[in-house]
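Researcher: Quick sanity check before group meeting.
Model: Go ahead. Protein one:
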Amino acid sequence: MPRITIVGAGIAGLNAALTLQDAGLSCSIYEASDRIGGRMHSDSTTWADGMVSEWCGEFIDGNHETIHQLIKRFGLTTIDLERARAKRAQNIMYFCNRFYGAEELARDFQALAPLLGQQVQEAGFPTTHAHFTQEGFRLDHLSVSDWIEQYVQGGRETPLGHLLETACTGFYGLDAGEQSALNLVYMFGSRDPSRDATTSRPMQGSCKIVGGNEQLPLAVARSLP
Protein backbone atom coordinates (compact mmCIF):
# COMPACT_ATOMS: atom_id res chain seq x y z
CA MET A 1 0.00 0.00 0.00
CA PRO A 2 1.56 3.35 -1.01
CA ARG A 3 1.96 6.04 1.63
CA ILE A 4 0.09 9.26 0.87
CA THR A 5 1.24 12.59 2.28
CA ILE A 6 -0.60 15.91 2.06
CA VAL A 7 1.35 19.10 2.69
CA GLY A 8 -0.81 21.81 4.21
CA ALA A 9 -3.93 21.60 6.39
CA GLY A 10 -5.84 24.34 4.63
CA ILE A 11 -9.28 23.58 3.25
CA ALA A 12 -7.77 22.12 0.05
CA GLY A 13 -5.52 19.72 1.94
CA LEU A 14 -8.29 18.74 4.36
CA ASN A 15 -10.74 18.15 1.51
CA ALA A 16 -8.14 16.00 -0.25
CA ALA A 17 -7.78 13.92 2.92
CA LEU A 18 -11.56 13.64 3.20
CA THR A 19 -11.82 12.50 -0.43
CA LEU A 20 -9.17 9.85 0.19
CA GLN A 21 -10.98 8.70 3.33
CA ASP A 22 -14.23 8.37 1.37
CA ALA A 23 -12.34 6.13 -1.05
CA GLY A 24 -11.01 3.97 1.79
CA LEU A 25 -7.48 5.37 1.71
CA SER A 26 -5.50 6.84 4.59
CA CYS A 27 -2.97 9.65 4.51
CA SER A 28 -0.81 11.88 6.68
CA ILE A 29 -1.21 15.68 6.70
CA TYR A 30 1.70 17.99 7.54
CA GLU A 31 1.07 21.62 8.50
CA ALA A 32 3.81 24.18 9.17
CA SER A 33 1.73 26.56 11.29
CA ASP A 34 0.14 26.02 14.69
CA ARG A 35 -3.41 25.90 13.34
CA ILE A 36 -5.45 24.35 10.56
CA GLY A 37 -7.68 26.03 8.00
CA GLY A 38 -5.28 28.12 5.92
CA ARG A 39 -7.16 31.13 4.55
CA MET A 40 -10.34 30.08 6.36
CA HIS A 41 -9.26 31.79 9.58
CA SER A 42 -11.83 33.51 11.80
CA ASP A 43 -11.45 35.96 14.69
CA SER A 44 -13.93 35.08 17.43
CA THR A 45 -12.08 36.63 20.39
CA THR A 46 -11.63 40.32 19.53
CA TRP A 47 -15.29 41.30 19.36
CA ALA A 48 -18.11 41.37 21.92
CA ASP A 49 -21.52 39.70 21.86
CA GLY A 50 -20.40 36.71 19.80
CA MET A 51 -19.47 38.76 16.74
CA VAL A 52 -17.00 37.05 14.39
CA SER A 53 -14.84 38.53 11.64
CA GLU A 54 -12.50 36.91 9.14
CA TRP A 55 -8.74 37.30 9.10
CA CYS A 56 -8.53 35.92 5.57
CA GLY A 57 -11.08 34.69 3.02
CA GLU A 58 -14.32 36.49 3.89
CA PHE A 59 -16.91 35.70 1.21
CA ILE A 60 -18.02 32.27 0.01
CA ASP A 61 -19.39 32.95 -3.46
CA GLY A 62 -22.31 31.12 -4.99
CA ASN A 63 -20.09 29.36 -7.55
CA HIS A 64 -17.85 27.74 -4.92
CA GLU A 65 -19.56 24.40 -5.43
CA THR A 66 -17.14 22.22 -3.46
CA ILE A 67 -17.29 24.50 -0.42
CA HIS A 68 -21.09 24.53 -0.50
CA GLN A 69 -21.17 20.74 -0.76
CA LEU A 70 -18.94 20.49 2.30
CA ILE A 71 -21.07 23.01 4.19
CA LYS A 72 -24.15 20.89 3.49
CA ARG A 73 -22.37 17.64 4.34
CA PHE A 74 -21.32 18.88 7.78
CA GLY A 75 -24.61 20.59 8.56
CA LEU A 76 -23.22 24.10 8.91
CA THR A 77 -25.45 27.18 8.73
CA THR A 78 -24.74 30.10 6.42
CA ILE A 79 -25.81 33.73 6.21
CA ASP A 80 -26.90 35.12 2.83
CA LEU A 81 -24.96 38.39 2.80
CA GLU A 82 -27.12 40.18 0.25
CA ARG A 83 -30.32 39.44 2.16
CA ALA A 84 -28.70 40.21 5.51
CA ARG A 85 -27.50 43.62 4.34
CA ALA A 86 -29.71 46.44 5.61
CA LYS A 87 -31.11 48.61 2.84
CA ARG A 88 -29.57 51.79 4.22
CA ALA A 89 -26.31 50.21 5.35
CA GLN A 90 -23.07 51.85 4.28
CA ASN A 91 -19.56 50.49 4.01
CA ILE A 92 -17.17 52.06 6.49
CA MET A 93 -13.49 52.23 5.60
CA TYR A 94 -10.80 53.17 8.09
CA PHE A 95 -7.22 53.67 6.92
CA CYS A 96 -4.26 55.63 8.30
CA ASN A 97 -6.04 56.19 11.63
CA ARG A 98 -9.03 57.94 10.11
CA PHE A 99 -12.27 57.23 8.30
CA TYR A 100 -12.00 57.15 4.53
CA GLY A 101 -15.31 58.05 2.93
CA ALA A 102 -16.64 56.75 -0.37
CA GLU A 103 -16.70 60.25 -1.90
CA GLU A 104 -13.06 60.84 -0.99
CA LEU A 105 -12.11 57.43 -2.35
CA ALA A 106 -13.94 58.11 -5.61
CA ARG A 107 -12.15 61.44 -5.96
CA ASP A 108 -8.73 59.89 -5.29
CA PHE A 109 -9.47 57.01 -7.62
CA GLN A 110 -10.49 59.30 -10.47
CA ALA A 111 -6.90 60.50 -10.70
CA LEU A 112 -5.77 56.91 -11.36
CA ALA A 113 -8.60 55.85 -13.66
CA PRO A 114 -7.05 57.05 -16.97
CA LEU A 115 -3.72 55.41 -16.17
CA LEU A 116 -5.35 52.13 -15.15
CA GLY A 117 -7.48 52.09 -18.27
CA GLN A 118 -4.44 52.72 -20.45
CA GLN A 119 -2.43 49.98 -18.75
CA VAL A 120 -5.26 47.47 -19.15
CA GLN A 121 -5.45 48.21 -22.87
CA GLU A 122 -1.70 48.08 -23.40
CA ALA A 123 -1.24 44.92 -21.30
CA GLY A 124 -4.06 43.04 -23.00
CA PHE A 125 -5.73 40.01 -21.47
CA PRO A 126 -4.79 37.41 -20.57
CA THR A 127 -1.08 37.66 -19.85
CA THR A 128 0.52 34.21 -19.85
CA HIS A 129 4.02 32.77 -20.24
CA ALA A 130 3.32 32.25 -23.95
CA HIS A 131 1.13 35.27 -24.72
CA PHE A 132 2.05 38.72 -23.48
CA THR A 133 2.61 42.29 -24.58
CA GLN A 134 5.56 44.46 -23.67
CA GLU A 135 3.42 46.34 -21.13
CA GLY A 136 2.00 43.11 -19.74
CA PHE A 137 5.53 41.76 -19.27
CA ARG A 138 6.62 44.98 -17.53
CA LEU A 139 3.66 45.01 -15.15
CA ASP A 140 4.06 41.32 -14.40
CA HIS A 141 7.60 42.03 -13.21
CA LEU A 142 6.41 44.86 -10.96
CA SER A 143 4.86 44.04 -7.59
CA VAL A 144 1.54 45.47 -6.39
CA SER A 145 3.38 47.34 -3.63
CA ASP A 146 5.88 48.83 -6.08
CA TRP A 147 3.06 49.84 -8.44
CA ILE A 148 1.34 51.71 -5.61
CA GLU A 149 4.57 53.47 -4.65
CA GLN A 150 5.17 54.45 -8.26
CA TYR A 151 1.70 55.59 -9.34
CA VAL A 152 -0.32 56.57 -6.24
CA GLN A 153 0.51 60.05 -4.97
CA GLY A 154 1.92 59.53 -1.48
CA GLY A 155 2.38 55.80 -2.07
CA ARG A 156 1.41 53.03 0.30
CA GLU A 157 1.11 55.30 3.35
CA THR A 158 -2.01 57.02 2.01
CA PRO A 159 -5.59 55.81 2.52
CA LEU A 160 -5.88 54.93 -1.18
CA GLY A 161 -2.53 53.12 -1.10
CA HIS A 162 -3.61 51.13 1.94
CA LEU A 163 -6.95 50.28 0.35
CA LEU A 164 -5.45 49.04 -2.93
CA GLU A 165 -2.87 46.95 -1.11
CA THR A 166 -5.46 45.51 1.28
CA ALA A 167 -7.86 44.73 -1.57
CA CYS A 168 -5.24 42.77 -3.52
CA THR A 169 -3.98 40.95 -0.44
CA GLY A 170 -7.47 40.01 0.68
CA PHE A 171 -8.72 38.96 -2.75
CA TYR A 172 -5.70 37.00 -3.94
CA GLY A 173 -4.44 35.77 -0.56
CA LEU A 174 -0.82 36.78 -1.06
CA ASP A 175 1.25 39.63 0.32
CA ALA A 176 1.13 42.61 -2.04
CA GLY A 177 4.91 42.67 -2.23
CA GLU A 178 4.83 39.20 -3.79
CA GLN A 179 1.96 39.78 -6.23
CA SER A 180 2.21 40.85 -9.84
CA ALA A 181 0.96 44.38 -10.47
CA LEU A 182 -1.24 42.86 -13.16
CA ASN A 183 -3.53 41.68 -10.37
CA LEU A 184 -4.20 45.28 -9.36
CA VAL A 185 -4.44 46.59 -12.93
CA TYR A 186 -6.89 43.89 -14.04
CA MET A 187 -8.95 44.25 -10.86
CA PHE A 188 -9.37 48.03 -11.01
CA GLY A 189 -8.63 48.96 -14.60
CA SER A 190 -12.22 48.66 -15.79
CA ARG A 191 -13.89 49.86 -12.59
CA ASP A 192 -15.86 53.09 -12.34
CA PRO A 193 -15.01 54.39 -8.86
CA SER A 194 -17.82 56.94 -8.91
CA ARG A 195 -20.30 54.06 -9.09
CA ASP A 196 -18.39 51.36 -7.26
CA ALA A 197 -16.23 53.03 -4.66
CA THR A 198 -15.81 50.02 -2.42
CA THR A 199 -13.69 46.93 -2.94
CA SER A 200 -15.33 44.84 -0.26
CA ARG A 201 -18.87 44.21 -1.47
CA PRO A 202 -19.77 40.51 -1.76
CA MET A 203 -20.81 39.05 -5.09
CA GLN A 204 -24.44 38.06 -5.58
CA GLY A 205 -25.06 34.73 -3.88
CA SER A 206 -22.20 35.16 -1.40
CA CYS A 207 -22.49 33.91 2.15
CA LYS A 208 -20.58 33.39 5.37
CA ILE A 209 -20.66 30.50 7.81
CA VAL A 210 -22.32 31.17 11.15
CA GLY A 211 -19.62 31.22 13.82
CA GLY A 212 -16.89 31.99 11.29
CA ASN A 213 -15.73 30.39 8.05
CA GLU A 214 -13.11 28.37 9.92
CA GLN A 215 -15.96 26.21 11.23
CA LEU A 216 -15.72 24.29 7.96
CA PRO A 217 -12.05 23.19 8.15
CA LEU A 218 -12.55 22.40 11.84
CA ALA A 219 -15.53 20.20 10.99
CA VAL A 220 -13.61 18.41 8.23
CA ALA A 221 -10.64 17.86 10.57
CA ARG A 222 -12.89 16.35 13.25
CA SER A 223 -14.15 13.79 10.73
CA LEU A 224 -10.65 12.57 9.94
CA PRO A 225 -8.87 9.92 12.03
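Researcher: Fine. The other one?
Model: Protein two, sequence then structure:
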Amino acid sequence: MVSTRYAKLLIDTADTLAGAQSAQDSWDAAVRIGRRIGATDLNCGAIMRDSREVAWLRSSMDMRWLRHYHQARFYEVDPVLAACKAGVRRQFVDVSERYRRSGGTRQRDLYGCLMDFEYHYLLTQTWIVGASERTIVLGCASDPKDLYGPGTARAFRAISAMLNDAILPPGEETAQEWICESPWAQLSARERDVLGYLAHGLRLHEVAERFTITEQEAARHLLSACRTLGVAAPEQALSMAMARGLLSL
Protein backbone atom coordinates (compact mmCIF):
# COMPACT_ATOMS: atom_id res chain seq x y z
CA MET A 1 0.00 0.00 0.00
CA VAL A 2 1.30 3.45 -0.88
CA SER A 3 1.77 5.60 2.23
CA THR A 4 -0.01 8.93 2.49
CA ARG A 5 3.33 10.74 2.79
CA TYR A 6 4.70 9.02 -0.32
CA ALA A 7 1.54 9.74 -2.31
CA LYS A 8 1.63 13.40 -1.26
CA LEU A 9 5.27 13.59 -2.33
CA LEU A 10 4.41 12.36 -5.83
CA ILE A 11 1.45 14.73 -6.15
CA ASP A 12 3.44 17.74 -4.92
CA THR A 13 6.27 16.89 -7.32
CA ALA A 14 3.91 16.64 -10.28
CA ASP A 15 2.23 19.94 -9.36
CA THR A 16 5.56 21.76 -9.00
CA LEU A 17 6.87 20.52 -12.35
CA ALA A 18 3.58 21.26 -14.10
CA GLY A 19 3.88 24.94 -13.18
CA ALA A 20 7.17 25.38 -15.06
CA GLN A 21 6.93 27.65 -18.11
CA SER A 22 10.50 27.39 -19.45
CA ALA A 23 13.64 25.27 -19.34
CA GLN A 24 15.00 27.44 -16.52
CA ASP A 25 11.70 27.13 -14.64
CA SER A 26 11.90 23.34 -14.98
CA TRP A 27 15.45 23.30 -13.64
CA ASP A 28 14.60 25.60 -10.73
CA ALA A 29 11.57 23.44 -9.92
CA ALA A 30 13.70 20.28 -10.04
CA VAL A 31 16.21 21.82 -7.61
CA ARG A 32 13.40 22.77 -5.21
CA ILE A 33 12.00 19.25 -5.38
CA GLY A 34 15.42 17.74 -4.76
CA ARG A 35 15.81 19.86 -1.63
CA ARG A 36 12.29 19.00 -0.53
CA ILE A 37 13.15 15.30 -0.49
CA GLY A 38 16.34 15.79 1.49
CA ALA A 39 19.00 16.66 -1.09
CA THR A 40 21.30 19.63 -0.58
CA ASP A 41 21.88 20.01 -4.32
CA LEU A 42 21.06 18.41 -7.65
CA ASN A 43 23.08 17.42 -10.71
CA CYS A 44 21.73 16.22 -14.02
CA GLY A 45 23.73 15.31 -17.10
CA ALA A 46 23.93 13.19 -20.22
CA ILE A 47 26.65 10.81 -21.42
CA MET A 48 26.73 9.70 -25.04
CA ARG A 49 26.24 5.96 -25.43
CA ASP A 50 28.76 5.65 -28.27
CA SER A 51 31.70 7.85 -27.23
CA ARG A 52 30.95 7.75 -23.44
CA GLU A 53 31.69 11.49 -23.33
CA VAL A 54 29.73 13.98 -21.24
CA ALA A 55 27.32 15.83 -23.54
CA TRP A 56 26.02 18.26 -20.93
CA LEU A 57 25.78 18.84 -17.20
CA ARG A 58 23.63 21.08 -15.03
CA SER A 59 24.40 21.52 -11.34
CA SER A 60 23.04 23.50 -8.40
CA MET A 61 26.10 22.66 -6.29
CA ASP A 62 28.10 25.42 -4.62
CA MET A 63 30.04 27.28 -7.33
CA ARG A 64 33.13 27.26 -5.13
CA TRP A 65 33.00 23.46 -5.12
CA LEU A 66 32.47 23.30 -8.89
CA ARG A 67 35.47 25.55 -9.54
CA HIS A 68 37.65 23.57 -7.16
CA TYR A 69 36.51 20.28 -8.73
CA HIS A 70 37.63 21.61 -12.12
CA GLN A 71 40.87 23.23 -10.97
CA ALA A 72 41.92 20.12 -9.02
CA ARG A 73 40.94 17.97 -12.03
CA PHE A 74 38.91 15.72 -9.75
CA TYR A 75 37.00 14.49 -12.81
CA GLU A 76 40.09 12.41 -13.59
CA VAL A 77 39.71 10.37 -10.38
CA ASP A 78 35.99 10.72 -9.62
CA PRO A 79 34.67 7.14 -9.22
CA VAL A 80 31.04 8.29 -9.39
CA LEU A 81 31.62 9.91 -12.79
CA ALA A 82 33.63 6.87 -13.90
CA ALA A 83 30.77 4.56 -12.88
CA CYS A 84 28.28 6.68 -14.84
CA LYS A 85 30.53 6.51 -17.90
CA ALA A 86 30.77 2.74 -17.42
CA GLY A 87 26.97 2.48 -17.54
CA VAL A 88 26.25 1.82 -13.85
CA ARG A 89 22.55 2.58 -13.50
CA ARG A 90 22.27 3.22 -9.77
CA GLN A 91 24.69 4.27 -7.04
CA PHE A 92 24.49 5.04 -3.33
CA VAL A 93 27.69 6.63 -2.06
CA ASP A 94 28.50 7.17 1.60
CA VAL A 95 31.21 9.80 1.17
CA SER A 96 32.73 9.44 4.66
CA GLU A 97 33.00 5.67 4.20
CA ARG A 98 34.65 6.13 0.80
CA TYR A 99 37.01 8.67 2.41
CA ARG A 100 38.09 6.13 5.04
CA ARG A 101 38.59 3.35 2.48
CA SER A 102 40.23 5.47 -0.20
CA GLY A 103 43.76 4.41 -1.05
CA GLY A 104 44.67 7.22 -3.44
CA THR A 105 45.58 10.70 -2.26
CA ARG A 106 43.56 12.50 -4.95
CA GLN A 107 40.41 10.46 -4.33
CA ARG A 108 40.82 11.08 -0.62
CA ASP A 109 41.10 14.81 -1.36
CA LEU A 110 37.96 14.57 -3.52
CA TYR A 111 35.91 12.95 -0.76
CA GLY A 112 37.33 15.31 1.86
CA CYS A 113 36.30 18.34 -0.19
CA LEU A 114 32.82 16.90 -0.71
CA MET A 115 32.40 16.63 3.05
CA ASP A 116 33.74 20.17 3.52
CA PHE A 117 30.82 21.36 1.38
CA GLU A 118 28.34 19.15 3.30
CA TYR A 119 27.89 16.59 0.53
CA HIS A 120 28.01 13.45 2.68
CA TYR A 121 25.85 11.14 0.54
CA LEU A 122 25.36 10.85 -3.22
CA LEU A 123 22.53 9.02 -4.95
CA THR A 124 22.48 8.46 -8.70
CA GLN A 125 19.88 7.07 -11.09
CA THR A 126 20.38 6.68 -14.85
CA TRP A 127 17.99 6.26 -17.79
CA ILE A 128 18.56 5.74 -21.50
CA VAL A 129 17.28 8.73 -23.49
CA GLY A 130 17.83 8.27 -27.23
CA ALA A 131 21.55 8.21 -28.01
CA SER A 132 22.50 9.23 -24.48
CA GLU A 133 22.25 8.05 -20.89
CA ARG A 134 20.87 10.69 -18.55
CA THR A 135 21.78 10.65 -14.87
CA ILE A 136 20.26 12.43 -11.87
CA VAL A 137 22.64 12.89 -8.91
CA LEU A 138 21.33 13.99 -5.52
CA GLY A 139 23.89 15.34 -3.05
CA CYS A 140 22.71 15.03 0.56
CA ALA A 141 24.03 16.31 3.88
CA SER A 142 22.22 13.62 5.92
CA ASP A 143 21.71 9.92 5.32
CA PRO A 144 18.61 9.78 3.10
CA LYS A 145 17.88 6.08 3.59
CA ASP A 146 15.36 6.61 6.39
CA LEU A 147 13.49 9.62 5.01
CA TYR A 148 10.55 7.51 3.83
CA GLY A 149 11.16 4.32 5.77
CA PRO A 150 11.47 1.09 3.76
CA GLY A 151 10.13 2.88 0.68
CA THR A 152 12.92 5.47 0.51
CA ALA A 153 14.74 3.82 -2.41
CA ARG A 154 11.49 3.54 -4.36
CA ALA A 155 10.62 7.17 -3.59
CA PHE A 156 13.97 8.40 -4.89
CA ARG A 157 13.64 6.33 -8.07
CA ALA A 158 10.13 7.64 -8.72
CA ILE A 159 11.03 11.28 -8.09
CA SER A 160 14.24 10.99 -10.10
CA ALA A 161 12.26 9.60 -13.03
CA MET A 162 9.88 12.57 -12.88
CA LEU A 163 12.80 15.00 -12.72
CA ASN A 164 14.51 13.26 -15.62
CA ASP A 165 11.41 13.75 -17.78
CA ALA A 166 11.07 17.40 -16.76
CA ILE A 167 14.65 18.71 -16.95
CA LEU A 168 15.49 20.02 -20.40
CA PRO A 169 19.02 19.94 -21.88
CA PRO A 170 20.81 23.30 -22.13
CA GLY A 171 20.56 23.66 -25.93
CA GLU A 172 22.98 26.26 -27.25
CA GLU A 173 23.90 27.47 -23.79
CA THR A 174 26.97 26.21 -21.95
CA ALA A 175 25.91 24.80 -18.60
CA GLN A 176 28.37 23.34 -16.08
CA GLU A 177 29.91 20.62 -18.27
CA TRP A 178 33.15 22.62 -18.24
CA ILE A 179 33.90 21.28 -14.74
CA CYS A 180 34.72 17.83 -16.14
CA GLU A 181 36.40 19.01 -19.34
CA SER A 182 33.51 17.84 -21.49
CA PRO A 183 34.63 17.97 -25.13
CA TRP A 184 31.55 20.04 -26.00
CA ALA A 185 32.83 22.83 -23.76
CA GLN A 186 36.10 22.78 -25.74
CA LEU A 187 34.48 23.43 -29.13
CA SER A 188 34.98 26.83 -30.72
CA ALA A 189 31.94 29.04 -31.24
CA ARG A 190 32.12 28.44 -35.00
CA GLU A 191 32.29 24.66 -34.56
CA ARG A 192 29.20 24.77 -32.34
CA ASP A 193 27.40 26.94 -34.87
CA VAL A 194 28.21 24.56 -37.73
CA LEU A 195 26.94 21.58 -35.73
CA GLY A 196 23.85 23.51 -34.68
CA TYR A 197 22.88 24.40 -38.25
CA LEU A 198 23.58 20.87 -39.48
CA ALA A 199 21.47 19.51 -36.64
CA HIS A 200 18.61 21.71 -37.83
CA GLY A 201 18.76 20.12 -41.26
CA LEU A 202 20.93 22.48 -43.32
CA ARG A 203 23.39 20.98 -45.79
CA LEU A 204 27.08 21.79 -45.55
CA HIS A 205 27.03 24.22 -48.49
CA GLU A 206 24.05 26.02 -46.91
CA VAL A 207 25.94 26.33 -43.62
CA ALA A 208 28.90 27.77 -45.55
CA GLU A 209 26.62 30.35 -47.15
CA ARG A 210 25.33 31.39 -43.71
CA PHE A 211 28.87 32.23 -42.58
CA THR A 212 30.13 33.50 -45.94
CA ILE A 213 32.86 30.87 -46.05
CA THR A 214 33.68 28.12 -48.53
CA GLU A 215 32.18 24.67 -48.22
CA GLN A 216 35.71 23.34 -47.66
CA GLU A 217 36.13 25.66 -44.67
CA ALA A 218 32.80 24.52 -43.26
CA ALA A 219 33.92 20.91 -43.72
CA ARG A 220 37.14 21.66 -41.82
CA HIS A 221 35.13 23.09 -38.92
CA LEU A 222 32.99 19.94 -38.91
CA LEU A 223 36.05 17.66 -38.99
CA SER A 224 37.69 19.64 -36.18
CA ALA A 225 34.50 19.35 -34.10
CA CYS A 226 34.44 15.58 -34.62
CA ARG A 227 38.05 15.30 -33.47
CA THR A 228 37.40 17.41 -30.39
CA LEU A 229 34.30 15.38 -29.51
CA GLY A 230 36.21 12.14 -29.96
CA VAL A 231 33.84 10.73 -32.58
CA ALA A 232 34.60 9.10 -35.91
CA ALA A 233 31.65 10.35 -37.95
CA PRO A 234 29.63 13.58 -38.26
CA GLU A 235 26.48 11.60 -37.42
CA GLN A 236 27.88 10.96 -33.95
CA ALA A 237 28.61 14.65 -33.47
CA LEU A 238 25.03 15.45 -34.50
CA SER A 239 23.80 12.89 -31.96
CA MET A 240 25.55 14.90 -29.25
CA ALA A 241 23.95 18.08 -30.59
CA MET A 242 20.60 16.31 -30.38
CA ALA A 243 21.29 15.19 -26.80
CA ARG A 244 21.98 18.82 -25.91
CA GLY A 245 18.58 19.85 -27.24
CA LEU A 246 19.79 21.55 -30.43
CA LEU A 247 17.50 19.34 -32.50
CA SER A 248 14.05 17.91 -31.85
CA LEU A 249 12.87 14.96 -33.92
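Researcher: One line on it for the slide.
Model: The mean pLDDT is 87.
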